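Deliverable D5.2: sample structural annotation.
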Amino acid sequence: MKLEKKEFGRMLEEVLGRTSDVSFLSNWAYEIFLDRQHNMDAEVRELLLDLNHMDDGPEFEFTTGELSEIARKLQG
């Protein structure tokens, strides 16, 4: 099943309810990318790659507020 924006928005919102740890979120995003990379919305693919890079340094990190806003927008 294709990973759509709305579904990923719900997934992101749910994980943000459990943690805001940058390393965890980065690894979480990469695992999803690896599992579903051939069957996902292009915007979700780009976002997952951006989230994966949060662990590369503070200049790549999103704030919790930014991530919550992204999750909300994805859910439409």
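Annotation notes: The longest helix spans residues 22-36. The CA atoms of residues 5 and 43 lie 7 Å apart.
The annotation will be released with the project's public dataset once the embargo ends.
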